[in-house]
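Slide 14.
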Amino acid sequence: MDITTFSAIAAFFFGTIVGSFLNVVILRLPKEDASIVFPASHCPVCLADLHWYENIPILSYIFLRGRCGHCKTGISLQYPLVELSLGLLAAALIIQFGLSIPAAGYFVFSAALLVIIWIDIHHQIIPDIISLPGIILGFLFSFINPLLSWSDSLIGILAGGGVLYSIALLYLFWRKVDGMGGGDIKLLAMIGAFLGWQSLPFVIFASSLSGTIIGLLAMIKQKKGGQTRIPFGPFLSISALCWIFFQEQIMRLFELYLSLSI
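Slide 15: predicted structure.
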């Protein structure tokens, strides 16, 4: 087994452990005055404290057959999905960037995006406590990230926040209702901080396209017409993750498009 394979496997297990903690953050962060540290992990229904063997990422869910070991209430599939997702992201980052500063920084970024995805799905909010420090952290990260300059990060912050803010103002002027929350604007600024302004055209295009498709399907299913609301944060976040791993392929496709359109 070579060092890259071993590192990727180790990163996967580390990612699942951090993912287990992210489940606590996702559950408690939106609640007022709730601590993400205390009390210890427990069933949200019967409040029984979990034994160590009930807290093993992914495996505990399988062994318990998706049910609490105390009250037998069903456990949300979200828990193993978050753990598995961050584990796979951690392994993919090691394969992509090796044991490096970019891999470490993008791991933190990916973990933040996962939390944002699930909280936005459940509550349709993007907590400022994640996005605002994320903007600062992303900019500071650019000073030690050999793949991104601080100027590209700074432009990404200004352009990311400015583009969505302009779109939100135009939508408000046109429809007389808020079509985009301030959380989405701050999230795109955070994405610009970590990935630079070069990522923004793809992130905005891919998230808008996928969001439109899902939105139309939701309109058909819910039968609410223009009143249908879906969170936009997950689409921005997933598009940002795609840019991390497929930036070169995306740029080649864009160059091919330009060459064919001339």
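Speaker note: Residues 153 and 196 are 4 Å apart (CA to CA).
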